[in-house]
Specification:
By secondary structure, this protein is an alpha/beta fold. The protein has eight helices and twelve strands. The chain is globular and about 55 Å long.
């Protein structure tokens, strides 16, 4: 008998993976959490039926969330990660010597605990001396912060459940207040095949608040459609104007200096989502 897991990405389309065993199934205070061992992608974390990360392809998403903004900002000392309870983003952030402190605010502590046990290569930086972990509401943390961070990374789930408010204009206004006068943020903003309206609305909202707004993409095989977008709002620094001397050697599998700017070259139908 074969066991398969299917994520229904729309009412009529999904992605499926053959499962070796179920490692965890738990209804937390916030969401349905499952940790599955798959044949193709290794251990997989799902929340409310959606794939969050897998051992095989996680580096794409985590590197593109972290390194694009950190190489854009010339002096990223204080970093905030909202969500990201698997630990992949903070693992990438601490590779940058300029970073003095990275604060991770994850609403669901069970995500952190299960990731430490079943995704150890992803959750490797939780004990790093530069890392502060807060189990709490990232939305409220942002609302209570002023001029506190150089870079904020919003590593949220898709806009369902507790993550819905992280895709609203008021949240982006809060991000602007929480950032220093030359700060910038980046947020995952879903895929252009199934969530075009969401991307268009987020880009429009961010563009009304930040003087520099950019959209970039990466290929994440286990995410809906495989083509994933990220939106950056910046008060001062344009990721397309980063000069060669800003880059330094770090260990990566996906991100490169050349890819930094190439990621902002959008397919025509995706670029159209950034136009009024």
């Amino acid at each position: 008998m074969e066991l398969w897991y299917t994520e229904k990405q729309t009412k009529s389309f999904g992605i499926t993976a053959k499962i070796k065993q179920t490692l965890v199934t738990e209804q937390t205070a916030y969401q349905q959490l499952e940790m599955l061992e798959t044949e193709e992608f290794g251990n997989m974390l799902t929340l409310d039926g959606m794939v969050m990360t897998t051992e095989k392809d996680e580096f794409v998403y985590h590197e593109m969330v972290a390194h694009v903004p950190l190489f854009t900002h010339p002096c990223p000392k204080r970093i905030l990660v909202v969500g990201g309870g698997d630990g992949g983003v903070i693992r990438e952030v601490v590779k940058h010597p300029e970073v003095e402190k990275v604060t991770l605010v994850e609403i669901d502590g069970r995500v952190i605990e299960h990731s430490k046990k079943h995704l150890p290569t992803i959750a490797a930086a939780f004990t790093h001396p530069k890392v502060e972990v807060i189990v709490g509401d990232g939305f409220m943390h942002i609302a209570e912060s002023r001029d506190a961070y150089d870079v904020i990374m919003v590593d949220s789930t898709e806009p369902v459940g507790p993550a819905v408010k992280l895709f609203e204009k008021g949240f982006y206004e809060g991000l602007s207040r929480a950032l220093k006068e030359d700060g910038l943020f980046i947020a995952q903003t879903d895929n252009p095949w199934f969530k075009a309206d969401l991307i268009r609305q987020v880009f429009s909202d961010v563009n009304e608040i930040f003087p520099i707004t950019r959209l970039y993409t990466a290929n994440v095989p286990t995410y809906p459609s495989g083509l994933w977008t990220f939106t950056m709002g910046s008060k001062a620094y344009d990721p397309l104007e980063v000069t060669a001397e800003r880059f330094h050697e770090i260990e990566t599998k996906y991100y490169t200096e050349r890819l930094h700017k190439a990621a902002f070259v959008l397919p025509k139908f995706v670029e159209a989502l950034t136009k009024k």
